[in-house]
């Protein structure tokens, strides 16, 4: 093969490679444009509801230099508390007493150099918790507000604030997801209509975390989800992000 024929073949191969390169580039541009021809929208679903489960707890304690005496006195207080709760219409199976926490007490002081010194043993401090879980929300609310009646009976009692929950949250979540999805799709359809296009296939759907706050509050949403337990009235919300192809 002479030198000229070799050059012709080389030019032909180069031209073919150039044509194939243009073809691949054209397909890449086409596919890139196709992937960019999408609409991504976020829809919101929310619902307000009233809690149907309440929990409440309190603690009481006794101090005595003799452990048995302290335990006996605490047991007497426990009976008074239990009888009081029953008299207020609380069911026995709703009342839970924890185990007794026993702490040794010491007379402590700071010496002349300001150093902390643990002094001699001064007695025992016994503490016990009582808690209630009930679906009678109003009844337990009233109980927590009027718990000073126990204190008036000579019992050293500390009451916590009630916590509120909702047992049908799974149903609420499903309703919100449906509402958020519908909201997102309607937004996407409106955007496509305004641009003279139509929606194609759904490419991707991403669900956010559920956020539960008090209605009309300024509570912040959190990355892992917010769950308010201090308010009986609640508002839940969730977001759905949909990505559609556009025709």
From TrEMBL:
It comes from the Bacteria. The lineage of its organism: Bacteria, Pseudomonadati, Bacteroidota, Flavobacteriia, Flavobacteriales. This is Protein of uncharacterized function (DUF541). InterPro entries: 26kDa_periplasmic_antigen, SIMPL/DUF541, UCP029033. One of its GO terms (biological process) is DNA damage response. PANTHER family: SLR1258 PROTEIN. It holds the Pfam family SIMPL. Transmembrane segments: none annotated.
